[in-house]
Structure formats: C-alpha cells, structure tokens
Amino acid sequence: MLKAGVLGAGHLGKIHLRLLQQSEKYELVGFYDPDKENAQKVVAEFGYTYFETIEALVAAVDVVDIVTPTLSHYDCAVKAIINKKHIFIEKPIANTVEEAEAIIKLADEHRVKGQVGHVERFNPAFTAVKDNFNNPMFIEAHRLAEFNPRGTDVPVVLDLMIHDIDAILSVVNSKVKKVSSSGVSVISHSPDIANARLVFENGCVANLTASRISLKNMRKSRFFQRDAYISVDFLEKKVEVVKMKEAPETPGDFDMILQNAEGERKQIYFENPEIQANNAILDELESFADAINNNTTPIVSLHQGTEALRVAKQIIEAFNHN
C-alpha cells in the first residue's frame, strides 16, 4: 500500500481524506491544513492524524494529495517533488501555465509521477462512451451551476469550464488553433458566465458555455462525428449514442431509414452502453496508485492538466479582445 497524505482539509480535502482511508491501495497517514482551528475540528470529528507542517507530512508519505487553493498548488507541488514524492494535484494544476510547466520539468528531473484531478474523465457516463469517439468535428458543452460563494475567487472558466476543456481535449486528436470568448461578471469580481469557441487544426469546432449563476444545474456535452451523435449527461450520468450505417437492401418494418439528396440511404440505430456506477474521485485516486505501482502514464497526466490550463487561460485572455 502506498502511504498518502493530504494537503488541505476543506470541503474537497475532507472527501479525499475519507476516500483514501477507505481505499485498499493507500494507507492514509494524515493531513496538513494551515487553518489550525479547522484542522482541530477535522481531527475531533474524524480522528485523522494532523501534521504541524507541510514538510513533516511530506517526509512521512509516498504520495502527496494536494487539495489546497489553486494559488498554493505550485509551492505545495515543489515541496513534494524535491523530496521525491508522487503528487496528485486538484484541478487546475496551477495558477499559471508557467508554474504548471515548471512542475512538469521538476517531476521529470526527480522521476516522480503526477496526476491532475480532472474528475469528469472518471464520470461513468463519459467512460461508458469513450470508445465511441472517432474524430468528433462539432462539440457543444453546457456546464451550469447554481450560485455558490465557494470558488468565486477565480473566473468561471477555471472553476467550471475547465472540466469540459479537459474532456474535449482528451477526445479531439488535434491542437487548438483559435480561441474566441466572452465573459460577464454578474455577482463576482471575475466572470460568472462565459462562452468560448475553440477551433482545432483539424477543423473541429467546440462551443462551451459555463455559468455559476444558473437557476438549475446542468452538465451536458454533445459530440457530432461522421455517422454518429453522442450525448453525455455528466450530472444525471446518462448517455445517448445514435449511429448510422448503410441501409439494408430490404429494411425491416421497424428499421429507421434516412435518404439524402443524392439518394444514399442510411439506417439509424441506437447503442446503449452500460453505465457502471462508481465513485469518480475514488477511481481517479486509485488509478493514480495503479500508475505508480505499474510504472505507467497516469490517465490525466501533468501534461494534459497543463494543456487544459493553457486553453482556459487563452479563453480568459480572449475576454479582453472582444
């Protein structure tokens, strides 16, 4: 079992602590949180071991799980890596692309592994259809959330949209060529609602909308590709896969047949991938343990986390140019 310690015992940090303690792939050693009052409450309620300093925690573990505010990700990662500890780091990987690239370089130098907490990659709806993606050329993503003061210290792009950015980058095998966007600050000092259009070198276009001032929650993406339409509902954990194939010479009474202007006939059929219920956060943490134990590349690598951040920053920069 890998010895793991958590930096940060806020809302998400407490979830990580609970799941690491449950996991059969980790031994939870303890946690560090700079807010001593909060730390004492966590100890009193759950009985986890509290470390007085980051350095003491890092020294006692194999894996450092960084669940602190984004501004501190870089400093925490450096302290772990220079002590040759593997790092799981919550999204976004860092506050700036430069910090993220420095983390990658340092991890390579010290030969440690890192994974970024883009949890939607482990959403059972997304994993159920990932083998169906084949060169999608148009994508629409909507991520709407009811207002919650937690997270409003960063733009909605880094808070919410980055989930969809990472998911899209993982299925489009091409580089982003052009970014345009608009964002509006309604209640926060940074944009609360944003729309972005990504154009890829292969011609794929992705439209993303994120809002944290919605009256209802929605996390849905739609992917269009040759002969297929794939819908992923990350919130309800449901999928739709509609495909087309050459129509048979003599269709059955219940076959759905379409004919285009050129006279080509296609048959529409539906696939129903099996969705396996899971705990996505536990799965991502345990997949990282597997990557360490088997010396394989983590499912969401530091490089991928950096690319998601790079595109997110380009979207934010484009706010000012429209």
From TrEMBL:
- A Pfam family that this protein carries is GFO_IDH_MocA_C3
- Domain GFO/IDH/MocA-like oxidoreductase, first and last residues per copy: 154-216
Lineage top rank: taxon: Bacteria
- UniProt domain Gfo/Idh/MocA-like oxidoreductase N-terminal: residue ranges: 3-118
Instruction: Enumerate the InterPro entries for this protein.
Output: Gfo/Idh/MocA-like_OxRdtase_N, Gfo/Idh/MocA_Oxidoreductases, GFO_IDH_MocA-like_dom, NAD(P)-bd_dom_sf
Any single GO molecular-function term of the entry would be: nucleotide binding
Q: Which SUPFAM superfamilies match?
A: Glyceraldehyde-3-phosphate dehydrogenase-like, C-terminal domain, NAD(P)-binding Rossmann-fold domains
**Official protein name in the record:** Predicted dehydrogenase
Q: Which source organism? A: Pustulibacterium marinum
